[in-house]
Design brief:
Layout: E1 2-6, H1 7-18, E2 32-38, E3 41-47, E4 51-58, E5 60-63, E6 65-70, H2 71-80, E7 86-90, E8 97-102, E9 105-110, E10 129-132, H3 133-141, E11 158-166, E12 169-177, E13 181-188, E14 199-202, H4 203-213, E15 219-224, E16 228-232, E17 237-241, E18 260-265, H5 266-276, E19 286-292, E20 295-302, E21 306-313, E22 321-326, H6 327-334, E23 341-346, E24 353-357, E25 360-367
Antiparallel strand pairs: 1-5, 1-7, 2-3, 2-6, 3-4, 4-17, 7-8, 8-9, 10-15, 11-12, 11-14, 12-13, 13-25, 15-16, 16-17, 18-23, 19-20, 19-22, 20-21, 23-24, 24-25
Helix pairs in contact: 1-2, 5-6
GO molecular function: 3'-5' exonuclease activity; DNA binding; DNA-directed DNA polymerase activity
Keywords: Cytoplasm, DNA replication, DNA-binding, DNA-directed DNA polymerase, Nucleotidyltransferase, Transferase
Protein name: Beta sliding clamp
Length: about 375
Amino acid sequence: MKLTIERAALLKALGHVQSAVERRNTIPILSNVLLSAERGRLSFSATDLDMEIVDEAEARVEQAGQVTAPAHTLYEIVRKLPEGAEVTLAWTGEDPRLSVSAGRSRFSLPVLPAGDFPVMSSDGLSGRVAVDVNDLIRLIDRTRFAISTEETRYYLNGLYLHTVTEGGIPRLRAVATDGHRLALAEMPAPEGSVGAPGVIVPRKTIGEARRLLDDAGESVDLAVSPQKVRFDFGAAALTSKVIDGSFPDYARVIPRDNNRVMMVDNQLFARAVDRVATISAEKSRSVRMAIEPGRMTLTVRNMEAGQAVEELEVDYDGEAFELSFNARYLLDVTDQISAEQAEFRFGGPNDPALVLDPTDPDVRYVLMPLRV
């Protein structure tokens, strides 16, 4: 194999695929990226056995061939080469080293046989559905903060993508929850998506898909099966196993009868919560909210660090009540609100609160109160 490729094109493609490679691997070839050169193209593939990312770039191929090389090392070499450099990759087929050269720089990297590199099958995936890039970015950005990191509840370690029909209108919905808060965002269902199986896309896959969306065009092709999901971004593609489990019946925890409605300036509220939480105990980070007509009082008490109190003006005219929330969860939700005002809908002191963005009716957040 021998080819020459522009440094910028090589760096972009390697940047897309190398993040699929785990830093620590017990299987040596999983630390490598598969390089395949033919007909003016250089293709890249990297995997951790649960997820595979592929990409390609134009190259001047003198001799076609395949080889694998250390992904992170190759990426770092290319990243440190000068802009505008022409990079030559060469491997004789018998040499245990891949030659990487650019200008006066020369590198030799160990290789492993391309035939040993695992390839993820796309069998069983449904027909491709085109999803607008901005819509998919919105679904991910508005929900992924609520994905659980608790490995024992593995079925919550991903984003639940599925279609629902409400009022005769099909919707593509993304839901994430960790049992303490829930985030839901939806959009009109793309043509052809109705009837596709709902899938729980792993947290790492969601992170990589979101990163690749920044370089995507106007739309992304999405295909799913009960076992896999595939995102096609054009030249790049991501295929991943989905979480084998049942997502909980989240609809049961979304409040429908919370009739205590409070409007508050979102930025002022977020800054106030952040200030009083400065002295909160690290584990609970509990903030007490006392709400009465026209006013909210935030209180944090810490036996060691003291007490913090701050008052805010709010639009509320119901009866007074109090409840507590985790400060971090409150701030995570306010980060997602794009409107000037955040809308809180409360039930009783131990009931979950519903948080809405007045400018985006297709997102909903649920926060469980702390029992203190």
